[in-house]
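OP here, attaching both records as promised.
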Amino acid sequence: MHTPSFTLRIAIGLAAMSLALPSLPRPLSAQATPQAVERLRITPAARTIAVGDSLLLTVQAVDSRGQAIPGAIVRFNAQGGRFQGAVDSLGWVRAGAPGTVPIAVTAMVPGGRPIVEKIEVRITPGPAARVVVTPR
């Protein structure tokens, strides 16, 4: 099979150089239509942690057949509850105070429309620091 190529001629001052280069592959958009993200598979399903703990959210973008879409871009954005906790770009939720941390999870493939799912992580009080019994 013959790979098409093109010649690049570069002239610098009085010297000239020719290079034979293979042709570049077509851009992805010209090769195939991207799979559309239909829904998100977010784990864990139980999203409750204690103050001081952390939780890793994992997301899988799936198509209409339920198949995972490789290369989907996933973003995590806290939608409030900044005192209660925070989420980073990898999906780590860190608990700060009792309450709820609302999070918007967005997934998309280049050339496709984004899918957004809103979830909540419940933050419960941590364990007791000490126990005092009265009267002695």
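Record two, same layout:
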Amino acid sequence: MSKNIEFVIENKNIEEYPNSKILINVCKSFEEKEITLTATFMGKIIPIYNCNAIGDILEDVFYPIIKDNLADFEEGQKQASPDYYGINKNFEFEQKVFMKQPGFDIGNFTSYVNMLTEDGGVYKKLFKTKYIVFEYSIIDEKIKIIKFHYLNVYNLVGYSGKTPITMQIKKMYGHLQ
């Protein structure tokens, strides 16, 4: 039996991204929209269904639309955290996508812990980093955005019973028991 733990953080001094309502409205406007992702190779048109590829490609698809509505929005470096920044890199955004059942983790736990130990790291990662999450389905070779969620990290991770929080174990120093 799994237990769901919900964190309620009540602190009026936590600085929120001032343009969050615009960002949320833009992202919600993607709901019910369909996207066709294909590759053309040797004269063949090949639909793209790989969930890892879909996540990366949707960053490229969604960013220009968000940027058109939020001048302060910037892309992060590819294959690095965060995916996007807001207001001179004072706010961070990670984009996640899932189909059917969310199964998120913190991509590289060691790296995440190192970020927490930096000056102001806990505040930055817990309160100034938001997760832009899209649920999608694939219907007739098209990706359909089902629902949008705007979350904090503590709303995203879970507990599996094996490790303190859900995570990918890529490169660990020592062993988790």
